[in-house]
């Protein structure tokens, strides 16, 4: 590959250390040190989780800060909304995510999604025809009940008082009326961008699979799953005949059940990775690229189910463009990655130190990976041979 090659750098964030844009810049710095004549384009990507607004704003969108209710009921001022024309993107993680928990203290039974509804109300004030809910990284397991309540849904106890916050509150649910909440979203295309396919309930549901990482004990998980089951049954009793079917829909369990609430409001689930790749114009950039560098914090089994690097690799393959991956760590053997990536480098193979929470070290190692990629796939030796014939990728 000639020294003037066109390279597209398009990573996701390295959670805990670097944003997607910081990852891309570090890779670019190292690559250009070894191949200064390469033509490099950068794009920061996201798949619907934390960093979605930042990635959108690296493209055509602009961010707007909103004061909303955080997961524990305290106000949060967050750049959780991104706007482009009549399309609004709302990042759930910025509203009720693990990263905005006061002091980092989890509240698995009582964390609320109420702030998501408030962000939706903010979006609906303007002329909007599409709202994208980027679902991922939340601290809640309330089935989206808080969001529905803030949009006007009636979720009351037997005595007429509203149910309490979080999934625990749904255990006391008696009366349901979604009329006002559904009317609020009438005429709006509600896109539920997620890369998980869990249903709402059961052993593969939102409480069982994601509750523990939000601080839920084994008993908490059972309590939450039971309460979410009560939610579904009360919806059916209130005449929402498709409630049980929606609860079984792939993606209903995303973001603590926000996917389910979005479906109740007429939303549609789509791949967060593919949606953001299209939204940010990845296909046009691929047309001009000789090869692509992508990556994420952890390249693992979940990555193969359609996470961003693999989704990008599939698009690149259709255009005949090779893709190289860089990850914080890689738990997959070569025979599992070879179908998608020409090479894989992992930061954990380059250091004995813990780089997952060290942004400076991660950036240094990413620059080293960029240099390796340039030496291996771009630079040519003085005698005209390709270093690819004699260098091994770490």
Structural class by SSE content: alpha/beta
Largest sheet: 6 strands, mixed
Which architecture of the largest domain per CATH? Alpha-Beta Complex
CATH class value of the largest domain: Alpha Beta
Mean pLDDT: 91
Q: For the CA atoms, what is the radius of gyration?
A: 22 Å
- Note poorly predicted spans: 380-394
Number of strands: 13
Helix coverage percent: 25-40%
CATH structural fold name of the largest domain: Glycerate kinase, domain 2
Which strand order does the major sheet show?
3-4-5-6-9-10
The coarse silhouette is elongated
Compressed to H and E, one letter per element, the order equals: EHEHEEEHHEHEHEHEHHHHEHHEHHEHEH
Strand content: 15-25%
Helix segment count?
Answer: 17
Secondary-structure blueprint:
Elements: E1 6-9, H1 20-34, E2 39-42, H2 52-57, E3 62-69, E4 75-84, E5 87-91, H3 92-96, H4 114-125, E6 130-134, H5 145-150, E7 154-156, H6 166-169, E8 175-177, H7 179-184, E9 189-194, H8 206-210, H9 218-237, H10 243-248, H11 258-264, E10 268-271, H12 272-279, H13 282-287, E11 291-299, H14 301-304, H15 308-318, E12 322-330, H16 334-337, E13 343-346, H17 359-377
Parallel strand pairs: 1-2, 1-11, 5-6, 6-9, 9-10, 11-12, 12-13
Antiparallel strand pairs: 3-4, 4-5, 7-8
Offer a quick outline of the entry:
The protein has 394 residues and is of the alpha/beta class. The protein contains 17 helices and 13 strands.
Structure description:
The protein is of the alpha/beta class and 394 residues long. The protein folds into two domains: 6-44 and 283-389, Glycerate kinase, domain 1 (Rossmann fold); 52-273, Glycerate kinase, domain 2 (Alpha-Beta Complex), CATH 3.90.1510.10. Helix content is 37%, strand content 19%. The chain has 17 helices and 13 strands. A six-stranded mixed sheet has the order 3-4-5-6-9-10. It has a five-stranded parallel sheet with strand order 2-1-11-12-13. A hairpin with a 5-residue loop joins β3 (62-69) and β4. The chain is elongated and about 70 Å long. The two termini are 20 Å apart.
